[in-house]
């Protein structure tokens, strides 16, 4: 349990006890909320229950003809009945009725040893209780390289998966491959014609085809594998063959490029498989039997308005040419997720331009008798790539779109992930390449990773000096900078909890930078390794604190999918 939750539980029990003893009247207890106050002089934690409950308390007293209580009196009665806890130190009641609580310094110092003993498990939470969650993200059309804007989807989706795994959820990462429809057919035809051009055949690509130079690269790959043997195919045979070959090349390239960003998928799900295995036909039958489909203008329509506001329009389920409508695959795909595969929760990470599609998903789920609360769609905004404040619109290499691979080659996965995570999902990002590659304290990525390298260096020096600190007397950790560092580490589970609750990982990079800065303040204020034998015991205690810091830094970096270097 988070410390806030433990304290809230302690206060709830205290109120019940105070009511039983007659210190407080019987009243409907609101949710007890314990927060981190904004200012250090307001305690490590604070609770405003007395202010929240003042009306209910005095109404109860009025009904008993027993006078009134002020918020201060209510708070004092709560504190009077508060059970002791090893982590709880000073408690004070301050105007107008806040209960401010401070952590016990001895307990706080001892946490350095507990962190070293438990490792990263110290910071993990039991939120999911083994519940299965599928996180589907990236899922860009497999018709070319991944644009750098898609890297934000990758960073958000993978980090959410890491957070959920660290919070006791069973997570599956999935890439939805849109391998059906007009666009992939055009892709296959473009690739077929590029292949013919490589063999000297004078033919243009389709007017609506893909003109990018990368299509020539894919065609060259096919030429290297098959020579000119595919020239004998008829047009009717060639397009599906080249579509399949192209899709295989693109998905392999996507897997490689995403792997360079430390993003890996448990499953690559084919849209086309929904039609091949009968899922779409089965969903069609379900909706038809429920009366949710009707015929109009030679097309089959889905009655979305039946499940959403009356102003919402219905959607084409099957077009007049027999092809599925825009939302048809979405319905079948989410039936597969929830019903066929049985995920407890599903998280889809989509770009903000899919917001209309996201708004219609609840109707689809209701029609399938799936609770829409089990689906969360995380929308993220766009990324503007800059160099020294000047926007970059085209690739230097190809004169076309800037790909994720191209940016990763210049800035690396660590910087890319950090800056792509550093804003809330709904905010636009200006990603400046010059800042991302700078090796200075102005670059937060460098600063955080240098902090991890520094703690690693300190611990290596201790090992070289054969200074063993597993039996350190941690009660010697009394300096304000030492306690501040420990308190900052204890906030990591709180940050993870908030990120999981809101499905927004942007809290992580800011916390990581704060932790690194807090360590620097400690390092500047407290000498860890001393040549004076009289300081040996204090050095041992501080070394254990440094080791705990290393564990915390490595864990937050891992949650963000970043490396934790030992040397820089």
Please give a structural write-up:
This protein has 568 residues and is α/β, with parallel strands linked by helices. Among the domains are: 3-103, 2-Layer Sandwich (Gyrase A, domain 2), CATH 3.30.1360.70; 109-126 and 441-559, Isoleucyl-tRNA Synthetase, Domain 1 (Orthogonal Bundle), CATH 1.10.730.10; 182-264, no CATH class. Helix content is 49%, strand content 12%. It is built from 19 helices and 15 strands. It has helices at 3-21, 49-63, 71-80, 105-118, 149-165, 182-198, 214-226, 235-260, 273-276, 279-289, 328-340, 355-367, 404-421, 433-437, 444-464, 480-490, 492-502, 507-525, 536-559, and strands at residues 34-35, 45-47, 88-94, 98-103, 132-136, 170-177, 267-270, 293-296, 299-302, 315-318, 345-351, 375-380, 383-387, 390-391, 429-432. A 5-stranded parallel sheet has the order 7-6-5-11-12, sandwiched between helices. Strands 1-2-4-3 form a 4-stranded antiparallel sheet. A 3-stranded antiparallel sheet has the order 8-9-10. A hairpin with a 2-residue loop joins strand 8 (293-296) and strand 9. The radius of gyration is 30 Å and the shape is flat.
């Amino acid at each position: 349990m988070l410390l806030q939750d433990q304290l809230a539980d302690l206060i709830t029990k205290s109120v019940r006890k105070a009511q039983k003893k007659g210190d407080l009247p019987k009243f409907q207890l609101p949710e007890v909320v314990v927060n981190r106050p904004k200012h250090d002089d307001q305690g490590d934690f604070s609770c405003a229950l007395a202010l929240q409950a003042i009306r209910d308390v005095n109404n109860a007293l009025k009904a008993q003809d027993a006078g009134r209580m002020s918020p201060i009196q209510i708070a004092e009665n709560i504190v009077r009945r508060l059970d002791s806890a090893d982590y709880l130190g000073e408690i004070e009641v301050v105007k107008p009725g806040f209960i401010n609580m401070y952590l016990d310094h001895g307990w706080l110092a001892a946490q350095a040893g507990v962190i070293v003993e438990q490792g990263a498990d110290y910071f993990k939470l039991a939120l999911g209780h083994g519940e299965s969650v599928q996180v589907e993200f990236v899922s860009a059309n497999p018709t070319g390289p991944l644009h750098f804007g898609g890297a934000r989807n990758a960073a958000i989706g993978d980090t959410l998966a890491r957070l959920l795994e660290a919070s006791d959820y069973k997570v599956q990462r999935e890439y939805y491959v849109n391998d059906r429809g007009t666009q992939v057919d055009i892709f296959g035809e473009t690739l077929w014609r590029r292949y013919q051009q490589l063999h000297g055949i004078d033919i243009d690509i389709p007017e609506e085809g893909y003109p990018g130079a990368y299509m020539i690269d894919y065609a060259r790959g096919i030429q290297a594998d098959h020579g000119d043997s595919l020239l004998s195919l008829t047009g009717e045979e060639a397009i599906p063959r080249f579509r399949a070959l192209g899709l295989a090349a693109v998905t392999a390239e996507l897997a490689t490029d995403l792997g360079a960003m430390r993003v890996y998928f448990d499953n690559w799900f084919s849209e086309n498989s929904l039609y091949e295995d009968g899922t779409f036909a089965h969903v069609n039958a379900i909706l038809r039997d429920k009366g949710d489909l009707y015929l109009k203008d030679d097309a089959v329509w889905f009655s979305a308005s039946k499940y959403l506001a009356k102003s919402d329009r219905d959607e084409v389920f099957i077009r007049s040419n027999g092809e599925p409508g825009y939302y048809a695959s979405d319905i079948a795909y989410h039936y597969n997720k929830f019903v066929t595969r049985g995920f407890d929760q599903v998280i889809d990470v989509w770009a903000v331009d899919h917001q209309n599609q996201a708004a219609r998903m609840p109707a689809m789920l209701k029609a399938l008798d799936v609770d829409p609360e089990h689906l969360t769609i995380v929308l993220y905004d766009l990324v503007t790539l800059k160099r020294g404040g000047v926007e970059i619109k085209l690739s230097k290499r190809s004169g076309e779109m800037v790909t994720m691979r191209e940016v990763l080659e210049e800035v690396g996965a660590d910087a890319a992930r950090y800056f792509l995570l550093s804003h809330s999902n709904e905010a636009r990002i200006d990603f400046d390449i010059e800042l991302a590659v700078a090796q200075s304290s102005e670059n937060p990525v460098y600063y955080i990773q240098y902090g991890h390298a520094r703690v690693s260096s300190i611990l290596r020096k201790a090992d070289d000096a054969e200074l063993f600190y597993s039996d350190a007397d941690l009660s010697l950790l009394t300096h304000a900078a030492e306690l501040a560092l420990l308190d900052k580490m204890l906030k990591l589970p709180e940050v993870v909890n908030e990120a999981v609750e809101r499905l927004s990982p942007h809290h992580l990079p800011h916390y990581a930078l704060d932790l690194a800065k807090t360590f620097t303040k400690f390092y500047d204020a407290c000498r860890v390794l001393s040549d004076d034998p009289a300081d040996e015991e204090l050095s041992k205690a501080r070394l254990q604190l440094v080791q705990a810091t290393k564990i915390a830094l490595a864990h937050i970096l891992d949650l963000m999918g970043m490396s934790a270097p030992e040397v820089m």
